[in-house]
Amino acid sequence: MKTMLTIAPSSMPSCSSNNNGREHYGALDGMRAYAIIGIVMMHVLSDIAIKPSENYLTTTVIPFFTNFVFLFMMISAFGLSCGYYDRIKACHITPHAFYLKRYKRVLPFFAIMVIIDMTWTHNLGALLEGFADLTLCFGLYPNVKIGVIGVGWFLGVIFVFYMLYPFFVFLIDNRRRAWGTLAVSVLLALIGIYYFGSKQYFQQPTDFERDNILYCAPYFVVGGIVYLYRRQLAAWVSAHKLLALAGACAITVATFMCLDRLVELASCTIIFATWLIYGLGSNDVVLNNRATRYLGKISMEVYLCHMMLFRVTGLMHLEKLIANPNLLYILTLLATLIGAVAFAHVVKFYVINKIKWLQ
């Protein structure tokens, strides 16, 4: 999920290149930052024992934030393509170099989290699940719910995408083929949801959910298509900033008004693709600032550790000190988020960077 990012001058899209010629879009860090905050908000709301008062925010908006994982998938496909699409097409990178870098990027922090969780749980099931986690190949298991780092299902899907990325490059070799690939991926997802996953056709239907690569495939393909049109889209957004922002907000509001009548695939694709496109040419301070750049760079680590910090926060028993359920939710959220950011920062920048074998 990581893409090195910079802020471009105000007259240009927030895109730059490093010494290797990679393109970087500054606003995408901001999107990752807000997405991870939304996911933490959703998990705290879902798991806290004493719920806050019910309103549109707590019954519709925050529960929708669980879908921010699909925005991460779009950004992952887009960001990976910025670094490797042309190099793979031109055979300028070996499989060894490509996959080794993926393991180095993902495994060290995840391995630490798995070891902590296994120690906390300490049973045979945790040992077996932890081994599967450490291979990063657990996303290939069909219909398996792994309890060790439960939120790690997302990493399992992402790593399957990494495995398939050379094939993905073939599928989006040109714009025409990419649109055809999107149509096929949508059909495969809908068949999985409404046929293989339906009791209408099977007594024991397949558990076809978001931990399946075919369920998530359309989001990766959308990220790839946005990459193919990135220069034109970035130029248009940069030239029409206010119109692009107003359009993105209007599309988001309109989609939320129709959530009950739209399938998840449609609503998430519409909203997240719109904001991804806006981010290509955006240099506004909301998406481009020091705080969002920092949080965006550790978003994966915060995602992987935030539920552990939620459990630690639970040991504080804030409910015994705070009677107001709304205030309890807010303080639990802040404690979880701050704890996760601090833990991710220390482990990523001090522990992993200082211990050579973890690198």
TrEMBL record:
Transmembrane annotation, as ranges: 31-50, 62-85, 106-128, 148-172, 179-197, 212-230, 242-263, 269-286, 298-316, 328-351
Family assignment from sequence similarity: Belongs to the acyltransferase 3 family.
InterPro entries according to UniProt: Acyl_transf_3_dom (IPR002656)
Pfam annotation, one family: Acyl_transf_3
Gene Ontology CC: plasma membrane
Keyword Transmembrane carried by entry: yes
Main location: membrane
Cellular localisation: Cell membrane
A molecular function (GO) term: O-acetyltransferase activity
Name the UniProt record assigns to this protein: Acyltransferase
A GO BP entry: enterobacterial common antigen biosynthetic process
